[in-house]
Amino acid sequence: MAGRLYIETLDTARLLDDVLIDSPIVASPNLSPRHWLSMLRLEQGRVHLGRAFWGMTPSWLKVLDHAPHCARAESLDERRMFREAFAARRCLIPVSGVYIWKQLPRQKQPFLVTRIDRAPFMLAGLWCRYMTDLKTAFDSMALITVDVDAPLTPLTDRFPAVIDADQATRWLSSDTPLSQARALLTPAPPALLGAFPVERLVNDPANQHWHCARPTGHMMTATRGAIQATGH
Q1: Has residue 15 been placed in a domain?
Q2: Which of 127, 155, 164, 219 is the 20 to 30 A CA-CA neighbour of 190?
Q3: Record's InterPro entries (predicted)?
């Protein structure tokens, strides 16, 4: 799953060319759902960087706590909010890493998943817009998760779909046939991502210290076997 994000201050030029900045990147060492984050979406043929609430909030949703922060790729057609957004409102979330938790005999050990080269990357998402009155609106979103491949298999069974920069416009465009958009929702290439154990203080979303992401062990990659969690 994806319950927490690690987002450094990013230069959008490292992700995509020709992005219109409506709002600067939201940086956070430990960003949890029900908070604002940065979102890339297509508007009139241009990619815009704006902000969205992490938790899909269509206008008919009555309880904010019920706003889903993730959607399974396999079941996008089963819920109206996901089905409509998948057809017309796909987005990308720029991140530096994603926290996941491995279940150990007595506790869970947090890991940070990053690109092996530590470059930023983009996660597939869906968004919707909610009008609070005739002049005011806000956007909200949910990440799309898929099954995992190595090196994440020992750690979790779900992870957000990663969209390559070369496929970003194709993913964002509502003109892209749904069959082609769905084909992009696959596990990240094994050589792209790695994971390393981090401090357990990240378990508390109130901890907003950058050393939440401090490694406490070696990085696990597709070419290195499982490692022993050495978090404090």
Answers
A1: yes
A2: 127
A3: SRAP, SRAP-like
